[in-house]
């Protein structure tokens, strides 16, 4: 994907099986290029922003949308050429990958 060009973008814009948003397609290509240019493995870079400790939220209202760590991750990724992301997206990544566990107290999934 990092080597996709204009013809690939146009092909993807015609693909009804994906979200056909030019900005998102271009961002995916740009982010693939940024990954290819990294001087460290992507997983190491991302996990370097995992918080040292995390307090389990008591209620859904206590679940943050952003944290200092997600702000730092977004800033570093943008510095390295990533686009179409911010601290909220980075925090969602942290939740989805298990870097933070935001299952509220009492949830059957809470560890």
UniProtKB/TrEMBL annotation:
It comes from the Bacteria. Pfam families: Adenine_glyco. PANTHER family: DNA-3-METHYLADENINE GLYCOSYLASE 1, DNA-3-METHYLADENINE GLYCOSYLASE I. This is DNA-3-methyladenine glycosylase I. It comes from Amycolatopsis bullii.
């Amino acid at each position: 994907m990092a080597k996709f060009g204009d013809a690939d973008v146009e092909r993807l814009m015609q693909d009804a099986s994906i979200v056909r948003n030019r900005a998102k397609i271009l961002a995916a290509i740009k982010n693939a290029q940024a990954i290819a240019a990294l001087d460290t493995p992507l997983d190491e870079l991302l996990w370097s922003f995992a918080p040292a400790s995390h307090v389990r939220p008591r209620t859904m209202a206590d679940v943050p949308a952003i944290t200092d760590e997600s702000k730092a991750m977004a800033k570093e990724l943008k510095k390295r050429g990533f686009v179409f992301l911010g601290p909220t997206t980075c925090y969602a990544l942290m939740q989805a990958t298990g870097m933070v566990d935001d299952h509220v107290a009492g949830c059957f999934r809470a560890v």
